[in-house]
Queue: 2 jobs
Job 1
Amino acid sequence: IDARTLQPLSRLIESLEPHVVVVSGDLTQRARAWQFREARAFLDTLPHPQIVVPGNHDIPLENVWKRFASPLEGFRSIIARDVEPFYVDEEIAVIGLNTARSLTWKAGRLNEEQLAKARARLAPLPSSLVKIVVTHHPFDVPPGGDENDVVGRSRLAMAVFAAAGADLFLSGHLHVSHTARTADRYPIEGRSALVIHAGTAVSTRQRGEGNSFNVLRLEGETLTLVRFDWDPV
């Protein structure tokens, strides 16, 4: 973590007065308790409500027993009991889904139970709401990106989300910003949602792009994406 980014970031986010704050995973580097406590302390400086999902780094790596017996114990006990949170107001619905898995270090996936739960939450909501899905692993990668980074069972998932009326997919994992249309990768008649990847907000593990975060502004039927970049000078 670049500690210089923390206070300016929390102050800026507070000044923006967001209706909801989304954190798309990898709150820690090695899923150690002290790292979760530091992440919790930072989250406490940010506005609420918050939609926070785990990332692959939030599952223990060195402790094999915990990795398979209780992979999300640290996240659940310190960050949030619910790893698949849900938020609804008069304009948006946001559902978080956990894509981190014990059997893989880097890759992630969704299962049929998760998709059924997401469908049950999103489908009954009116189409006037902007329906947002938050995962750590992405549904798309930038040109030249590693296709293995795309979340597992993505095509099955996208069919379910399209039927439920999902409009927007937010993710992390890549450490770079990226936007795309679902129709380019997942051709489904009558549906084309947006895919928006956040860069890394505070990590020093960058991929040729500085620290940044995204702000989404919804005004009527217009959605505006603004990226804020950290300038250390």
Job 2
Amino acid sequence: MASNLSRFLAELKRRKVYHVAGVYAVVAFVIWQAAEIAFPALSLPDWTLTFVVAATLLGFPIALVLAWAFDITPQGVQRTESTPRKLG
């Protein structure tokens, strides 16, 4: 059981899912802060800030799935190569 978990966590690291999660969280926080400052100055209704927060929260799992499935390389976006499974 622990071996499966450690392999899964190693695969998350190899596919850079942790990196994407951290960058996404920082960018989302910056967007929220900018929206909190700018939206009242632009006289936007209160629901627009709620919409921005909800949209970024909904985008988080999508970003993680895309990070799992694809790599960005100098040759462009490519599917992440799977590691061969060890038998036994």
